[in-house]
Design a protein that fits this description.
By secondary structure, the protein is an alpha+beta fold. It folds into two domains: 3-18 and 84-151, Phosphatase 2c, domain 1; 26-73, no CATH class. The protein has helices spanning 26-34, 70-73, 100-103, 108-119, 125-138; strands at residues 3-8, 14-17, 38-42, 47-54, 57-61, 94-99, 147-151. The strands form two sheets. Strands 2-1-6-7 form a four-stranded antiparallel sheet. A three-stranded antiparallel sheet has the order 3-4-5, covered by helices on one side. Helix 4 (108-119) crosses helix 5 (125-138). The two termini are 29 Å apart.
Length: 153
């Protein structure tokens, strides 16, 4: 499971967004390879994975970072998270933390516009989060869906 976060304002403007740690990212691919890992392309579509060997079995991880056991981390997967802070001192600022099921079907701007438009008429971040999950399901989200919205309103 991957968690992504972004901060925005009520105008739907993205102020910050976490970096996606996919094996296809040039920086992540280099880091993985420098730490003993192997990145491979699998499937009919261009899809990069980190090959991990556990005993006599091999597994292809779709993520470059994960909370994993030492054996996996020795093969290039990192448990190191990006840390950042954001000052939310303006009415209308909000923060979103979501799993990749949402990020796979909405880009950052779409998420911000969705939330910002609803914050104009509602202050219930619980309902807004539920609506966002429902919208992701309608778009065909195939991965896990978890969303937390925090609003400075």
């Amino acid at each position: 499971m991957r968690l992504d976060s972004l901060g925005a304002d009520i105008g739907g403007n993205v102020k910050l967004a976490s970096h996606d740690h996919k094996p296809s990212d040039a920086i992540e691919m280099k880091r993985i390879q420098e730490n003993g890992g192997q990145v491979v392309c699998v499937g009919k579509e261009v899809s990069f994975r980190v090959t991990i060997k556990l005993g006599s079995d091999s597994y292809n991880y779709a993520v470059a970072r994960s909370l994993e056991v030492e054996e996996v981390r020795r093969q290039g997967i990192s448990a190191k998270a990006d840390l950042f802070s954001v000052k939310m001192d303006n009415a209308g600022d909000f923060l979103v933390i979501a799993t990749d099921g949402l990020i796979d079907v909405f880009d950052n701007n779409e998420i911000c516009e969705f939330i910002a438009s609803r914050l104009l008429t509602s202050d219930s971040v619980d309902i807004i989060s539920e609506d966002l999950i429902k919208a992701a399901l309608k778009r065909g989200a195939a991965d896990n869906l978890s969303v937390v919205v925090y609003s400075a309103i």
